[in-house]
Amino acid sequence: MKRIFLVTFIILSTILCSCSQINEESINCSLNKNLLSVHFIDVGQGDSTLLISPDNKTMLIDAGDNSHGQKVVDYLNKLNIKKIDILVGTHPDADHIGGLDYIINNFDIGYFYMPNKSHNTNTFKDVLLVAKNKSLKIHKAKSGMSFSLGKFIKCNVLSPMKNYSENNLCSLVIKSTYKNKSFLFAADAEFQNEQDMINSNYNVKSNILKLGHHGSSSSTSEGFLLKVSPDIAIISCKHNNKYNHPSEKTLTLLKKYNIPLYRTDKQDDIVLFCDGYEIFSYKRPLKL
Ligand SMILES: [Zn+2]
Predict the structure, then answer these.
(1) Which residues lie across from 173 on neighbouring strands?
(2) Which residue segment(s) compose the domain that 267 sits in?
């Protein structure tokens, strides 16, 4: 099996190494070593993040747009996943929930969370329909809620705090913690949500930040970035996308604070492993 280990040490004792691709062996490695693995699946202009807990429970946050649903299914199948214990549709936009009907149709689902926000699109209606056909209840999530992924991973919902009318502002923002390390998944949250979280005195500080709204200029304020104070940032977007994500402003901000960055448009699928004390990967972050 093609596999190259290039281990490099970076700030704050985070260990990062490099390898060709994710495969079954990586998951076996994850289980054997009591690791949490977090997979930022490349779904072009969209989001899809898979967590596999040390006790082999799975959480999928979004599944890209409709054209990437099968890719996410294939990715999960390759890892021999049969059940999604927690499925999250962060908000009704198609680049996040478009692929969820594929997931619901192809896997057993434990809990299914969505925000309290409906949308007048066929994509949104498709998700409701497949969930109904499978008798899968949709649990409405909002800030202040918490749940566990297996015995070891605690998940806190930090946003939204209000019933906003705009889809992005309704994004479910989830902080997942494993022992001393935490991951913040910001979906398409915008400045308003960031300010809400800061004003509420939520503990947003996290080692890993998946930047809001694909790195757009309307998310990741300097104040919020300083509060989160991540060791590593992740951006999920498509190469040469029409929105010009990520924005130069956001990239400049990351550079200013010397925060290493991973991008799905440049690095395809990205997997981070965490033993609760260190975070490492088979790929190196980009040079800013
Ligand atoms: Zn989006």
Answers:
(1) 159
(2) 8-281
